[in-house]
Design goal:
By secondary structure, this protein is α+β, with helices and mostly antiparallel strands. It has two helices and twelve strands. A hairpin with a 2-residue loop joins strand 8 and strand 9. Helix 1 packs antiparallel against helix 2.
Length: 213
């Protein structure tokens, strides 16, 4: 436990303490927003507008034996950017990525999912796995174009490399749901939030002292 005693001090000393605190707090806040997923929007692919391609190599990701289908304004638009992926290529496939985690730390996962247009929910399922454990199956009946929904959940690190995996689990018929905008960021630890609160409190104190001078 760290105990901080605030004693009467001159304004200059208070300002030095304030600046030190402000350097500490943003460092923790910035760490919490660092993007851990590589190529979560699938924009590194060279697939041109109006085309699609099945590839076994996708930057940042490992793909299953049947590869991954990258689309660019085909059968609907991307949630963000130009490209998105489907995991039911010539049959059900998957993609995964390993992320460096700390044991017991919490991480925020966010991703955009859309059922394929004109395809029933039974064929559109995508299951999410974290370190081999299912985090849920996402599906729906497809209408016209891509009706994107953003899903969010927390993941807990086990230490070392954690595996994030998305797998097509509907009918294996080359028609399935779509993924885009996959993101994982660290959730700030309580100590970081407390430090930020302390810094804000010092700012208020400093402003009050300045206004009295």
């Amino acid at each position: 436990m760290i105990i901080i005693y605030i004693l009467p001090m001159k304004t200059a000393s208070l300002l030095r303490l304030l600046l030190a605190t402000c350097f500490l707090a943003p460092a923790g806040a910035q760490a919490s927003t660092i993007q851990m997923v590589s190529n979560g929007g699938f924009e590194t692919s060279s697939v041109a507008s109006g085309t699609w391609a099945i590839t076994s190599s996708l930057a940042g990701w490992t793909a299953g034996a049947l590869g991954v289908e990258v689309r660019n304004h085909v059968a609907g638009d991307a949630y963000a950017g130009q490209r998105y992926v489907e995991l039911d290529t010539t049959g059900n496939s998957w993609i995964s990525q390993t992320l460096a985690t700390s044991a017991g730390s919490t991480y925020a996962l966010s991703f955009a999912y859309a059922p394929r247009e004109g395809v029933a929910a039974a064929s559109n399922g995508i299951e999410v796995f974290w370190n081999g454990a299912s985090k849920g199956i996402f599906t729906g009946n497809g209408g016209a174009g891509n009706a994107w929904n953003v899903y969010k959940m927390n993941l807990v690190g086990l230490g070392g490399a954690g595996e994030l995996k998305f797998a097509a689990v509907g009918a294996s018929d080359s028609l399935g749901g779509a993924l885009d905008a996959i993101s994982v960021t660290a959730v700030p630890e309580p100590a970081t939030l407390a430090t930020m609160g302390f810094g804000l409190g010092l700012i208020g104190l400093f402003r009050r002292r300045r206004s009295r001078q």
